[in-house]
């Protein structure tokens, strides 16, 4: 399954992407759950809104490492992937 047509390579590009992504969320909160994808470290993101009963998938981030450093980040924004990785389809949200 191909990812969305976005790849972020290098510290500056990854930092800029993450800053823009988290700034865009407004008052929504993000939870990152560690997992792996094709032997690479990955993070499943869930996005919750205040008052919503559940946080929903927001993209699977696969990290390409070189030694102890992250060299690339590829985001898969396909919610149907979550169960394939043993991830829940939603996380408990905040009712406040």
Question: Helix- and strand-based class?
Answer: mainly beta
Through-space gap between termini: 37 Å
Helix content: 10-25%
Shape: globular
Q: Low-confidence stretches at least 5 residues in length (pLDDT < 50)?
A: none
The count of β-strands is 6
Could you give a short description of this structure?
The chain is built from one helix and six strands, in the order βαβββββ. The protein is mostly beta strands and 96 residues long.
What does this structure look like?
It is a single chain. This protein has 96 residues and is mainly β. The protein has one helix and six strands; from the N terminus they run E-H-E-E-E-E-E. It has one helix spanning 11-24; strands at residues 7-9, 29-37, 40-48, 54-66, 69-76, 91-92. Strands 1, 2, 3, 4, 5 and 6 form a six-stranded antiparallel beta sheet that branches. Strand 4 and strand 5 (69-76) form a beta hairpin. It starts with 6 loop residues before the first strand and ends with a strand. The mean pLDDT is 83.
């Amino acid at each position: 399954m191909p990812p969305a047509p976005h790849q972020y390579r290098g510290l500056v590009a990854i930092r800029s992407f993450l800053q823009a992504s988290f700034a865009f969320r407004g008052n929504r909160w993000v939870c990152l759950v560690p997992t792996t994808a094709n032997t690479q470290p990955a993070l499943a993101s869930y996005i919750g809104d205040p008052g919503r009963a559940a946080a929903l998938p927001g993209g699977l981030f696969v990290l390409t490492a070189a030694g102890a450093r992250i060299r690339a980040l590829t985001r898969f924004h396909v919610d149907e992937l979550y169960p394939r990785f043993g991830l829940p389809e939603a996380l408990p949200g905040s009712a406040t």
